[in-house]
Input
Amino acid sequence: NLAISKVKTCKELGEPEVFEQLFDAYSSKLYRYLYLHLSSKEDAEDALSTTFVRLWEYVNGNPKAAVKSISALLYRIAHNLVVDQYRARKPVVSVEVMLEQGIEIPEIKALDMNKQAEVSFVLKAFDKLESDDRDLLVLRFVEDMAVTDIAEIHGITENNASVRIHRALVKVREIVTQPSK
Output
């Protein structure tokens, strides 16, 4: 661990003996993190291997880059792999479909019939959005996350997150105001 604690650049991190120590120090922690998120031994093992492969590719592709936190870098790579796994295997279910299947959303159920119809209309428009736009709107307005947190999750600037959220809202508005065909 002594060699790992002195690492300041990707070039130093890419040295075989340092990388080996890094694997020994973090592999069990990362495996546990991945297993908790992926719930499969095989998926967790694959993701762990891929995490270190991506780290190796990153440090060798950016030898002069500074390493502020090895732990943060490793967990960010692992987190991105978890997100990729979720996206690959998790089918997108619309709120409209959930309502049709009898899954109740209390806030919608409490509305009067006219408001329920309006919500249903907006949800249909929402389902027509691209998944990234839906995700941004869900994080902002359903999960009530700050734009700063959304930007960090998506790896974009705060300004970019604000602009993308605004554009997604504009798309919903356009869909809602379009005359039906």
In short: The chain has eleven helices and no strands.
